[in-house]
Design brief:
Blueprint lengths: L19 E2 L5 E2 L1 E2 L2 E2 L61 H18 L53 E2 H17 L1 H6 L3 H18 L12 E5 L2 H5 L22 E4 L6 H18 L8 H20 L19 H14 L4 H4 L2 H12 L11 H11 L4 H19 L12 E2 L5 E2 L5 H18 L5 H15 L81 H21 L6 H5 L28
Antiparallel strand pairs: 1-2, 3-4, 5-6, 6-7, 8-9
Helix pairs in contact: 1-15, 2-4, 2-6, 2-11, 2-15, 4-6, 6-7, 6-8, 7-8, 8-10, 8-11, 11-12, 11-13, 12-13, 13-14, 13-15, 14-15
């Protein structure tokens, strides 16, 4: 990394631990009461239009420390970017929120680039081979996935790392694709107009290609299907802190290089994972069949055929996935919601599959019986997302459509009408400043998912309170982007104050492959690399708007994950569309919600999106 000029001490740093510019163009990095020569400071990141900074969830047991991590407090990274966006009322950057929302959405793609595993594609802008800039700190990694002791002996490279570690899960990959894809379908016009359609399809395809690899034994006979649900053992992976490119592989159980693959099949069912994966394949196929730079009807046909196979497998062999060894970071409690999602999206992708389409209502009713009172929308409860997909597809009859609309309306009403966390044990509840809070672990993920359900409901639910739904999403999104008592943006690279030390192994290491990594307990807080777009977990206490701590050891509230960003990107794009097609140029979204745009509080009704075309039956895979 390039360094600032001078090589001498410079004053005026204070104790902020941040890079300070001085009049002659030099700077210094400071930790608490420490100064270092300017020559030791990495070059300050340039936030130009070519580097569009952007936009996750963590569960317990994740993020164990390594036994030994190279710590080098004197190498103090410089990580401040020029402010890009403030959504607070009265802020200068709020004058054109259409551009703000579009920029935030594009940042999501950067985070998904950072999370890519395997041989990185040329379009990954973080590749070391692409240049020597401050974003070129990723390289090919885990090229032996699927090989070695405890594996299936096949190529399982590719896909996304789940979070700040290097595990890969079919479950969260599928959820990410489903949330990205369904959001993309509902807000397709806005995705296209904002320039985000092609990146959406490109990134969804990356995840779908890995799911096809994971479905390594595909058959029209349900009992013959086999699917890899997980790559890597949680405890072994969490014991390592360093770059993914340098993590050992091919080791035996008990060694640092042990990276097993856990499989579901007829004897070890995982119908929740299989159904979620089936849904993701169908969702990806719907995107790939639409016009765009990355359209691919042939691959879409393959995905639909694989989706049908996995759906039949999940329906015939019921049972929740549990790894045969070690920790289970994603212990789902039901498969009914996943089956409803898979049925809805598979029928949308291929209406000719009458066996599935005729039973969508049966699967939805079964999920409703289990999940109707649930207020979380995430990988553990996909019924709200499945219901959005169902209503978007227009495949439901009148009775089912009415029930589905009621579910979404009631779900969002609980979030909009949440009481103060200090006065209720109900979830969700709200902080003193109005943030809708559900759980101390990944609070922002639950909030962003609820935003997407609300914003989508405004599009797909007949007679919905469109203005109320959109304004709920807009206010919650503004909170995540810095309109809160602490002025804290929870999206690295976005705003004047954003997370500097997310719990993320790769971001904690210098761009130089031979340079050090900073462990969770290193005294200097900032990571050498900005984790662009990685929405972090957020507040750990719903009674306080100041309960977030930007420290690397805090994996509960300062880690990002692929499923955290999957909904927020469509929130940004959806609000972009609302801003550009519904509001006058002099009025931003928050002003509209406050009724101060030209004295009017009237909102036009948005027509429902047109029904998607019925694609031809898929070709055999």
């Amino acid at each position: 990394m390039a360094s600032a000029s001078g090589g001498r001490d410079c004053g005026g740093c204070g104790t902020s631990g941040r890079h300070m510019e001085v009049p002659n163009g030099e700077g210094c990095c400071c930790s608490s009461r420490q100064q270092v020569p300017c020559s030791m400071c990495p070059q300050r990141q340039n936030t130009s239009a070519s580097l569009q900074p952007v936009l996750l969830r963590r569960r317990g047991g994740r993020g164990r420390r390594a036994a030994a991590v190279l710590s080098m407090p004197l190498l103090l990274p410089l990580l401040l970017l020029l402010p890009l966006l403030t959504l607070g009322r009265g802020a200068a950057a709020a004058q054109d929120t259409a551009e703000d929302y579009a920029s935030v959405a594009r940042l999501t793609w950067q985070f998904l680039h950072i999370q890519q595993s395997g041989e990185l594609p040329e379009w990954n802008e973080f590749r070391r081979e692409a240049g020597a800039g401050p974003t070129n700190w990723r390289g090919d990694a885990h090229l032996e996935d699927g090989q070695g002791p405890g594996t299936v002996g096949l190529d399982l490279t590719g896909g996304w790392y789940d979070a700040g570690d290097h595990l890969k899960f079919a479950f969260t990959t599928a959820y990410t694709i489903n949330a990205l894809g369904i959001g993309g379908l509902v807000f397709e016009d806005s995705y296209r107009a904002s320039g985000n359609w092609d990146p959406l399809v490109q990134n969804v395809r990356w995840g779908a290609e890995w799911l096809v690899k994971a479905h390594y034994q595909a058959s029209d006979e349900p009992g013959m299907n086999k699917l890899v649900a997980q790559v890597g053992d949680a405890a072994t992976d969490h014991a390592y802190w360093g770059r993914p490119e340098q993590q050992e592989q091919l080791g035996a159980q008990g060694s640092p290089g042990w990276r097993p693959t856990w499989v579901i099949d007829a004897t070890r069912p995982g119908s929740d994972v299989a159904a979620a994966t089936a849904g993701a394949m169908a969702t990806a196929a719907l995107l790939l069949r639409r016009v765009g730079a990355h359209s691919d009807a042939a691959f879409a046909d393959v995905l639909v055929a694989r989706s049908a196979q996995l759906f039949a497998f999940a329906a015939a062999y019921r049972g929740l996935y549990r790894p045969p060894f070690g920790e289970d970071p994603y212990p789902s409690q039901s498969d009914d919601d996943d089956l409803a999602l898979a049925a809805s999206m598979l029928c949308a992708a291929d209406a000719g599959r009458e066996v599935v389409c005729n039973r969508v209502g049966v699967y939805w009713d079964a999920a409703f019986a289990v999940k109707q009172s649930a207020t979380n929308a995430d990988w553990e409860n996909t019924l709200p997302l499945a219901t959005v997909g169902l209503l978007w597809s227009r495949r439901a009859d009148a009775a089912l459509s009415n029930k589905a609309s009621s579910l979404l309306t009631n779900f969002v009403a609980k979030w909009r009408g949440a009481g103060l966390c200090s006065a209720t044990l109900e979830r969700p509840c709200r902080t003193p400043a109005g943030f809708a809070w559900w759980l101390e672990w990944g609070a922002n993920r639950y909030n962003a998912n609820a935003q997407l359900i609300a914003l989508a409901a405004a599009e797909v639910v007949p007679g919905a309170d469109t203005s109320g739904l959109r304004c709920f999403a807009a206010r919650q999104a503004a909170y995540l982007l810095g309109n809160n008592p602490d002025g804290q943006s929870f999206v690295p690279g976005h705003g004047a104050k954003y997370p500097l030390a997310p719990h993320h192994r790769g971001a904690s290491c210098t761009g130089d492959i031979n340079g050090p990594c900073f462990g969770p307990d290193d005294p200097f807080p900032a990571n050498p690399n900005v984790l662009f777009g990685g929405l972090v977990g957020g507040l750990t206490d719903g009674t306080s708007d100041l309960s977030y701590r930007d420290v690397r050891s805090n994996f509960q509230s300062n880690e990002a994950a692929i499923d955290y960003v999957a909904s927020f990107v469509s929130v940004a794009v959806g609000l972009w569309g609302y801003r550009t097609r519904m509001l006058p140029p002099f009025c931003d979204v928050l002003q509209s919600c406050d009724g101060v745009c030209n004295g009017s509080t009237a909102y036009p009704t948005v027509p429902l999106p047109p029904a998607p075309p019925s694609p031809p039956p898929p070709s055999p895979s």
